Amino acid sequence: MCAKVATNTAAVFTEAMRAYESGKPAEARRLARRLVEAAPHFGGAHYLLGLLALDQNQGKRAAGHLATAIAITPGQPTLHLAMGRALEISGETVEASLHFRTVLGLYPHHAEAHARLAHLLRQQGRDDEAITHCREAVNADPGHAEAWNTLGALLQEQGDPREASQCLRRALQLRPAWPAALNNYGLALKQCGNLPEAATILEGAVDIRPDHAGSRTNLASVYRAMGELEHARRHAEVAVKLARRDADAWIELGLVRQAQGHDEGAAAAFEHATAVAPDQIKPWFCLAEACRSLGQVERAAQAYRHCLTLDPDDSHGAGLGLALTGVVDTPQRAPEAYVRQLFDDYADRFDSSLVGALDYRGPTLLAEALNRTLDRKQDLVVLDAGCGTGLAAPTLRPLAATLDGMDLSPAMVAKARQRQIYDALYEAELENYLNRHPDRYDLIVAADVMVYLGSLSGPLAAARTALRDGGTLAFTLERTEDSESYMLGAKHRYAHARNYVVQQAEHAGFVVTLLEDAVTRKDGGEDVPGLLVVLRKQSRKND
Questions:
Q1: What's the distance, Cα to Cα, between the start and end of the chain in Å?
Q2: Nearest-angstrom CA–CA distance, 367 and 299
Q3: Could you give the residue ranges of the DSSP H alpha helices within 23-143?
Q4: How many CB atoms lie within 10 A of CB 502?
Q5: Which letter, b or e, does each residue of 31-51 get, where b requires 16 or more Cβ atoms within 10 Å of its Cβ?
Q6: How confident is the model at residue 7, as a pLDDT?
Q7: Which of 219, 223, 388, 464 is the most exposed place for a label (fewest CB within 10 A)?
Q8: Is 305 helix (H, G, I), strand (E, B) or coil?
């Protein structure tokens, strides 16, 4: 290209870009096409045509122009960034990711490339990688609102609502009145247990975008949690009208109807959700629970069985529900996946819900029982089995030279670690952990743990293995007078008979030191009948 042509090309391109940046796309397009005709090997013209196509959401057309630009001038990060966006719009997410990674190979701290790549990784379910790239984006550019929003949404989904809230507040400082960030912030506040503020934030999101079904659904769920069921019903009904194919909206409407005592209407809403999302577990489980409430045994059993087909590990407890219909025998314990998921989901509001709403006092009652029954009250090796967030730790620490905690839920173990009271914490299943630590402990305490176990044979034998001679096992149970052994309650918790506890304890080689009626919690404002149990391991010479 001669100098005169090059100078003219540069001048026309400058004019074209000025038109584009001034909001004159037609003029910019005219000049870019003129450049392509006059200088077909000038990459800038193809790049500008790609940007214009992107602005019209024409991903495939943009990708064609940008591919030409990249072929002419390879190794330009701006071109690869635009190509990534074009491919993303076209739904070619894997190819888009490659272009964003190319940008990062050239400029490792490119905030926009990190942010776009994080967004795609989140869509692919690669959340940990997405979080890493979000953090890189906000480190490179603290003013990148989209990266803060994506990071907040990811942290909220991973069960860290407090940091999520901080990220989303930052996103909203940068872009006030942003519906997507308001929606995510409301969800994080709900997960933190701050329901009134969550409702206020989500109302703001709905005011800005009244036709957004997701925000309506989330607002309905907050109002339902607050007990404001008419508000919840109104928003849930609007949500399903706005998005008839949104399973979450139908599920929320069903849950609201259920809370209002309209079981048949709830079942109808859940039926809609199963039709919309037949491969999702939650709609089928909700339908099963509603049908069981209505006494529709066969329909409930069919839905529970479908849940088990979709989720053989049974993270929703469908097997327990199936047993409650009476069509199968009561299982000996709750599924491990169900208990883990239950408490992972519950971790952030566990303390406030258990101590506040349910008036939970298991650790206090166990501490009083141990004070009455322990011969030695210090320098013990102690295990807080099923430690949860560590509510029992302050009462056990004075007894312990070493205080270990273990729980099936990773989220609970993480919360317990924040207390900085335990000497060691383990993520493990109860029986497996106890059998792997023979003769280690002087005292094992299990508050509100055995309620997820029907048969006590296995856990008591495992506890005896882990205890030293003369060691103590203390735990709480829910009590039943309607069974000679144990029964499964409607809330998927087991209750045990007094005589059965004595029989199992003696069979496992324990002496019953204390067995008392107790109330460790409430449900619906009513006391839940329970048992307070302290057992002592017989020494081997007495076996």
A1: 99
A2: 46
A3: 25-38, 43-55, 59-72, 77-89, 93-106, 111-123, 127-140
A4: 15
A5: bbeebbeebeebbbbbbbbbb
A6: 62
A7: 464
A8: helix
Q: Which residues of the chain have pLDDT under 50?
A: 1-5
pTM attached to this predicted model? 0.83
Residues 337-357: tens digit of each pLDDT: 999 998 887 666 665 555 555
DSSP assignment string, 322-366: HHHHTSSPPPSB--HHHHHHHHHHHGGGHHIIIIIIS---HHHHH
Interatomic CA distance for residues 185 and 151, integer angstroms = 11
495 within 8 A of 464, measured Cβ to Cβ: no
463 close to 443: Cβ distance less than 8 angstroms: no
Q: Are 510 and 537 in contact (CB under 8 A)?
A: yes
* All residues at 6 or more sequence positions from 89 whose CB lies less than 8 Å from its CB, including other chains: 54, 57, 58, 59, 62
How does pLDDT run across 457-512, given as a tens digit for each residue? 999 999 999 999 999 999 999 999 999 999 999 899 999 999 999 999 999 999 99
Single-letter amino acid code for the residue at 30: R
Strand 380-385 relative to strand 441-446, pairing: parallel
CA distances from 287 to 217, 241, 243, 269, 391 (A): 18, 20, 20, 8, 35
Residue reference for tokens 């005896």: 464
CB 474 within 8 A of CB 460: no
Question: Which domains are delineated in the chain?
Answer: 349-542 (3.40.50.150)
Q: What is the Cα–Cα distance from 168 to 138, expressed in whole angstroms? A: 12
